[in-house]
Structures are given as structure tokens and as C-alpha cells.
């Protein structure tokens, strides 16, 4: 992620239960305040944060409840969008609508346009090349030498996948994680200089993709995402801002989420060696381990909703216009749903109940693809009897939206 902006929590936080503070994620200190919230105030009004007042929704049941009422708790960009960061100036801020930040019916129409890229038949079509690319990358890794797992494996594998989905020029594929890092870093809004720099970089992204759009506008339909948008009734007439917004959604959704789970699973297995031993002894646990890695890591810490009317949320008075942070990262550690929730358990019997993909109409459209990429990575590592040992605490993203890693020094051994 882009790290040019100073952490906003350099300003003293007055509320110890303000879990939007970037340092909690940078320093991996978020578990305890969320544990307190779940035990003492699972629906909590935080009055003092760098993002303004907001409601923290930190347990499983109320998160699902809010997600189940999209008309009452809106994700639309018109009310503030899907993150705690509000536009600096609603009248003049550059707005990029995207279908995850839209309400029905427009959300439905645009989501339906890109959904065919993630069907079971498409996963079958992509799996062979995905496995080949994963195998080739793992075979190039040094054994017994230190290297950065984040850059060498997690970023590269997800970047390759994104390039294929967009039919993006292969030689320029590393532009995709660069744009994703800037687009997904909501902390940049706290600094006017980096906020403007972010807009410049997003315009650069938009210009590049506009060239691709123009080149394919008169070509025959193809299975890449740009072609799907061009040849659809719902998205062919998008404004430039809306086009850029949907690009940001698909790039961040396809990059930050999977890549940080690919890093998180290595960290989790290293942190719980007895669980790693179970997996090494029984490759039949691979698919479940992929779901558990997604739950345990929760690569997007929260999604925001905004109340469109006064409401009662399990006894708490929500006013029209209030923003609610649905903390998936905490819901996935809810002890009433996931026993021993802080533990990475490769044989957890309900790992697939996780909320990391969201719930309801906004559930991640690329969930199958994410699961497939992680499952294939684990399977190919198992074929090679590859054990990844984390050599020191990883460097983490300083942000309350993307819960991820910027570097993780590792060494590979065989078992």
C-alpha cells in the first residue's frame, strides 16, 4: 500500500474503542479493542475519530442484519460510499461511482454485467493456467534463502490474475498493484497533498484504461472484463468517473484481498505450527484451510453503510445519515460463532461462514476466484512439501480498510 501519508493517529486518540485508528492495524494491535467491543458494546457509537462520528458494529449477528437491509442501510456513494472516509468536500470532490457503492436497481444491473467472469465454468476454464502459473512461480523460489513473500509471491500471483481478467498488457502488469495501493488507501484523505497525488495517479490509471477501452470498442465480444463492460447495456454508456470507479473496485477487489490472504495464510500457519502440521499430514484439509485463511486474515477490515432513515438496531437509536462501520475483521472473530476464534484452525468446521466476502446483495462477486487462487497456491505448496517460515514480524498496512502486509521476510524449507 502507499505509505506516503503519516498515520492519522499521530493525533492523540481520545476514545480507546475507536477502532478506525491506523496504528492498530500497522502495529497489529486491533484484536484487544475489538474483543472489548464484542464483550461490552457490540454496537457502539464512537464520537471522536479522524473520520468523524460513526457506529461500530462488531459482532456477527448485527453485521448480517445490517447487510440484509440494503435499502435502510445504504452503500451508495451518494450517501458516503463503502468506507469510513467521507469525501473532503461533497460539492467539489472527485467522485468515482462503482457498483459496490450503488443501491438497487443500478447495482444489480452493473454487477450482473461482470458476474459471468466469475461463474463456476469460468473458474474451470481459468484453473489450468492458474495452476501452471503458480507452479512456475513456486519452482523459481529459492530454498533456504531469505526473500519477501509479499512481493515475490502474493503480489505477483494476484497481479498476473488481474492482468488476465482485464486482458491487460503483460509487461505493464505491475501498474495494477501500484494503482490498487493508491486507490485503496483511505488514510490519504487526511493529508491534502497525498489526497491530490492520489487523484493524479487515479487519472493516470483512467487514461491508461481508456486507451484499452477505445481499442476494444469495435472489437468482437471477449471474456475479459473491459469487453464485458463495453458490450453491456448497463455499463457501455458509463461516464469516465463511473468507469474509473468500477476499475478501482475490480482492481482493489481482485488485488488487495487475495494477495493479503496469500500472505496471511503463511503468517497464520507459521504462528500455529501444530495446525500447520495437521495440514502437512492431510492435504485433504487444503480447501478448508483456504476458507479459514480468508476468515482469519479478513483482508478488508470494514465496509461502511449509511442509514437512510431513523432506525432501531438491537436497541440502539440509529439516526438518518449516521454511518455504520461493519467490522468484518471483528465479526470473523466473534466467539459465539467461531470457537477459539483467534486461532488459525485448518480443520475448523464452520470456516466457510466467515464474513470476509460480505453478506447479502453486496457479497464479493469474485469470491470463487479468490478461493480458487488460494486453494491452488496451498495445493502446489503441498506438492512440493514446501514449508514457509516467517523470519520476523511482517510490515503491515497502516489503514483501517485494507488489512494487509507490505513485506514479510521468509525462508522456505522442505518437510
Name the features.
Cyt_P450, 45% helix, 12 strands, single chain, heme, heme binding, monooxygenase activity, Cyt_P450_CS, Cytochrome p450, 415 residues, alpha+beta, 14 helices
Folded structure, characterized:
With 415 residues, this protein is of the alpha+beta class. It has one domain: Orthogonal Bundle (Cytochrome p450), CATH 1.10.630. Helix content is 45%, strand content 11%. The strands form four sheets. Strands 1-2-8-5-3 form a five-stranded mixed beta sheet. Strand 10 (395-396) and strand 11 (405-407) form a beta hairpin. Helix 6 packs antiparallel against helix 10 (240-271). The longest helix is centred in the middle third of the chain and has 32 residues, at 240-271.
List the helices and strands and how they pair.
Blueprint (H helix, E strand, L loop, with lengths): L21 H5 L4 H10 L2 E4 L7 E4 L2 H8 L5 E2 L31 H9 L5 H20 L6 E3 H18 L8 H10 L7 H25 L8 H6 L9 H32 L1 H9 L4 H12 L4 E6 L3 E3 L2 E3 L4 E5 H4 L35 H17 L2 E5 L4 E2 L8 E3 L1 E6 L1
Parallel strand pairs: 2-8
Antiparallel strand pairs: 1-2, 3-5, 4-12, 5-8, 6-7, 9-12, 10-11
Helix pairs in contact: 5-6, 5-14, 6-10, 7-8, 7-10, 8-10, 10-12, 10-14, 12-14
Amino acid at each position: 500500500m502507499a505509505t506516503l501519508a503519516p498515520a492519522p493517529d499521530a493525533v492523540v486518540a481520545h476514545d480507546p474503542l475507536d477502532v478506525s485508528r491506523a496504528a492498530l492495524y500497522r502495529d497489529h494491535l486491533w484484536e484487544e479493542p475489538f474483543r472489548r467491543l464484542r464483550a461490552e458494546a457490540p454496537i457502539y457509537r464512537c464520537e471522536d475519530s479522524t473520520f468523524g462520528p460513526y457506529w461500530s458494529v462488531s459482532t456477527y449477528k448485527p453485521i448480517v442484519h445490517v447487510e440484509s437491509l440494503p435499502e435502510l442501510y445504504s452503500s451508495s456513494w451518494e450517501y458516503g460510499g463503502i468506507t469510513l472516509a467521507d469525501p473532503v468536500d461533497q460539492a467539489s470532490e472527485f467522485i468515482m461511482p462503482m457498483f459496490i457503492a450503488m443501491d438497487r436497481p443500478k447495482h444489480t444491473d452493473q454487477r450482473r454485467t461482470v458476474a459471468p467472469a466469475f461463474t463456476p465454468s469460468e473458474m474451470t476454464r481459468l484453473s489450468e493456467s492458474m495452476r501452471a502459473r503458480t507452479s512456475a512461480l513456486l519452482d523459481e523460489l529459492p530454498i533456504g534463502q531469505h526473500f519477501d513473500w509479499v512481493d515475490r509471491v502474493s503480489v505477483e500471483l494476484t497481479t498476473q490474475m488481474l492482468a488476465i481478467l482485464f486482458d491487460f498488457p503483460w509487461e505493464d502488469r505491475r501498474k495494477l498493484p501500484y494503482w490498487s495501493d493508491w486507490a485503496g488507501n483511505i488514510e490519504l484523505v487526511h493529508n491534502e497533498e497525498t489526497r491530490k497525488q492520489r487523484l493524479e495517479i487515479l487519472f493516470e490509471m483512467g487514461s491508461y484504461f481508456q486507451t484499452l477501452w477505445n481499442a476494444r470498442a469495435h472489437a468482437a465480444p471477449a471474456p475479459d472484463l473491459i469487453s464485458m463492460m463495453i458490450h453491456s447495456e448497463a455499463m457501455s454508456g458509463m461516464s469516465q468517473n463511473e468507469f474509473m470507479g468500477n476499475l478501482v473496485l475490480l482492481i482493489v477487489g481482485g488485488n488487495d484481498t487475495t494477495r493479503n490472504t496469500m500472505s496471511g495464510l503463511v503468517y497464520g500457519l507459521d504462528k500455529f505450527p501444530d495446525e500447520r502440521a495437521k495440514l502437512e499430514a492431510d492435504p485433504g484439509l487444503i480447501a478448508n484451510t483456504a476458507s479459514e485463511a480468508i476468515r482469519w486474515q479478513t483482508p478488508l477490515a470494514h465496509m461502511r453503510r449509511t442509514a437512510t432513515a431513523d432506525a432501531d438496531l438491537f436497541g440502539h437509536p440509529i439516526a438518518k445519515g449516521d454511518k455504520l462501520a461493519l467490522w468484518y475483521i471483528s465479526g470473523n472473530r466473534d466467539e459465539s460463532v467461531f470457537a477459539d476464534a483467534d486461532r488459525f484452525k485448518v480443520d475448523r468446521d464452520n470456516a466457510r461462514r466467515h464474513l470476509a466476502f460480505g453478506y447479502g446483495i453486496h457479497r464479493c462477486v469474485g469470491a470463487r476466484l479468490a478461493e480458487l487462487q488460494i486453494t491452488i497456491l496451498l495445493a502446489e505448496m503441498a506438492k512440493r512439501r514446501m514449508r514457509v517460515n516467517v523470519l520476523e514480524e511482517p510490515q503491515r498496512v497502516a489503514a483501517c480498510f485494507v488489512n494487509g502486509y507490505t513485506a514479510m521476510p521468509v525462508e522456505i524449507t522442505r518437510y
